[in-house]
Design brief:
CATH class: Mainly Beta
Number of domains: 1
Shape: elongated
Structural class: mainly beta
Number of strands: 15
Radius of gyration: 20 Å
Order of helices and strands: HEEEEEEEEEEEEEEE
CATH topology: Porin
Strand order of the largest sheet: 1-4-5-8-9-11-12-15
């Protein structure tokens, strides 16, 4: 993951550039997290994070006609959860994401509508902020813990930028944030295990200001 970020930064810096263009802005969104399978000798449960709101800020650099880059920060609310049948346990939680993406556009910088594809990587810091229970439902599968854990994250997505004036643009986009399961927050019980990667699909809208 670290090598992906370094390669992205190198591409943005060393590809021959023409006129510079910068973007500063913010996005609002809502994240949908796919559940993870927790296997134990007594059966299978679903664990992960609940859907929740998210917001973020970005700084984009467009030194080339079609290729640029963005560094982004995002806050994602998402309670920890484990459920099976009619039983469920939850704990308040959230995550902070910082990542750099290479952005490839399908139209030149002067276009009023610019579809784009983005891929990059960074880090995601998970935090459990609720109260731990002395007796938690489904603890034979996963124990929800009040702690924090930072893991690498892969960012893949795309969208469209729509220029509404010379300096202001509106954007619609969606990203899939992929990371390993945070097994310190979602702690498998003895003899249990969590399989799969955590996928967090986040559609978003935002506004950016263009600086030249």
């Amino acid at each position: 993951m670290r090598s992906l970020v370094l390669a992205s930064l190198t591409a943005a810096v060393f590809i021959p550039a023409t006129a510079q263009e910068w973007e500063l802005g913010g996005v609002g969104s809502y994240g949908f997290s796919r559940g993870l399978a927790a296997y134990a000798p007594v059966g299978t449960a679903t664990t992960g994070f609940a859907s929740g709101y998210a917001w973020g800020v970005l700084a984009g650099h467009n030194p080339h006609r079609l290729v640029g880059g963005e560094i982004r920060y995002a806050f994602r609310r998402g309670d920890l959860r484990v459920e099976r049948g009619g039983q469920k346990a939850t704990m308040r939680g959230h995550a902070h994401l910082v990542h750099y993406d290479v952005v490839v556009h399908a139209a030149d910088r002067g276009a009023w509508v610019r579809p784009f594809f983005a891929v990059g990587g960074g880090a995601r810091a998970f935090r459990g902020t609720g109260l731990e229970r002395a007796v938690q439902p489904l603890s034979q599968f996963v124990l929800l813990t009040r702690t924090h854990q930072t893991l690498p994250v892969l960012s893949v997505g795309g969208g469209v930028k729509i220029r509404v004036s010379r300096w202001l643009s509106f954007r619609l986009e969606a990203r899939d944030y992929v990371s390993p399961a945070p097994d310190k927050l979602l702690t498998p019980a003895p003899g249990a295990e969590i399989r799969g990667w955590l996928h967090d699909v986040v559609p978003a809208f935002g506004l950016t200001v263009t600086l030249r």
